[in-house]
Amino acid sequence: MANERVRVRGTSIFRPIIYGNTAVVLTSQEKLLAPSQEHTHRWTVAVRSAASAPNSEQVGGADDLSYFIKRVTFKLHDTYPNPSRNVDKAPFELTETGWGEFEIQIRITFVAESGEKAITLYHHLKLHPWTATGEPEIPSLEVATKAGPVHSWQYDEVVFNDPYQNFLNILLQHPPTPLPKVKRKPIPFHLANPGSLEASKGGVPEFNALMEKEESERLEEARKAVIAEQDRWREKLIEKEKELEKLQKEVDAMG
């Protein structure tokens, strides 16, 4: 049993997750029951598995993540009572009502067997329909109601490097549901891909393997762009250092 607390060096294993929110306009009856008459929307923020269950009316959530997640803490705007909310069992989600958008801090605490530190993610609560530019456009409540739910979700991968043997065993016992290989439903819109706006309409969106591949390619292109920019500035720095060295020699020669 002792060797179960030994790290398996050179091993890397990940679990695909999504985090984000879905928002809908409150009905007249719901608005009467809301904590404030100023509240216009009901929203749910969540951390879920990336794959969606068949015929599901929610984004993601095919798998129970409690085998590696112990707790998710959602830090809401300070105007909410008890703004730091702990969710200690699946599903790791929180539903509230409100009228404004704000940033939510999401802290994921892993099970004790993992030996891993908690991670923190950030999500901008989205209540109003997307636009290709990302600029806020707040339609009338009547128009927003007809438009249907607003979805804002981000795909991510939680990577465990050199995991403990017993935790690795747990992960291997719970393989994630694979993402569909082809587009079966609308896809979640992302500002990094403005062309996905039209493809996101028409129902509950779903992540798929093609999106995962495209996201990886976008990240790789961004990485290459950063490296190219670093190289450009490095060359400029070397050039300036040579100029400085030349000037220093000229000054020394004059002395």
Automatic annotation (TrEMBL):
Q: Which InterPro entries match?
A: YEAST_sf (IPR038704), YEATS (IPR005033), YEATS_dom (IPR055129)
The UniProt record lists the keyword DNA damage: yes
Q: What is its main location?
A: nucleus
According to its UniProt record, where is this protein located? Nucleus; Cytoplasm
Instruction: Return the GO cellular component terms, semicolon-separated.
Output: cytoplasm; Swr1 complex
Which ranges of the sequence are coiled-coil?
Answer: 216-250
Q: Where is the YEATS domain?
A: 7-174
Can you tell which superkingdom this protein's organism belongs to? Answer: Eukaryota
Q: Which GO terms describe its biological process?
A: chromatin organization; DNA repair; regulation of DNA-templated transcription
Q: Which PROSITE patterns match?
A: YEATS
Q: Which UniProt keywords apply?
A: Activator, Chromatin regulator, Coiled coil, Cytoplasm, DNA damage, DNA repair, Nucleus, Transcription, Transcription regulation
- Record text on subunit structure and interactions: Component of the SWR1 chromatin-remodeling complex and of the NuA4 histone acetyltransferase complex.
Q: Family per UniProt? A: Belongs to the YAF9 family.
Free-text function comment from the UniProt entry: Component of the SWR1 complex which mediates the ATP-dependent exchange of histone H2A for an H2A variant leading to transcriptional regulation of selected genes by chromatin remodeling. Component of the NuA4 histone acetyltransferase complex which is involved in transcriptional activation of selected genes principally by acetylation of nucleosomal histones H4 and H2A. The NuA4 complex is also involved in DNA repair. Yaf9 may also be required for viability in conditions in which the structural integrity of the spindle is compromised.
Quote the record's domain comment. The coiled-coil domain is required for assembly into the NuA4 complex.
The protein's name in its UniProt record: Protein AF-9 homolog
Origin species: Psilocybe cyanescens
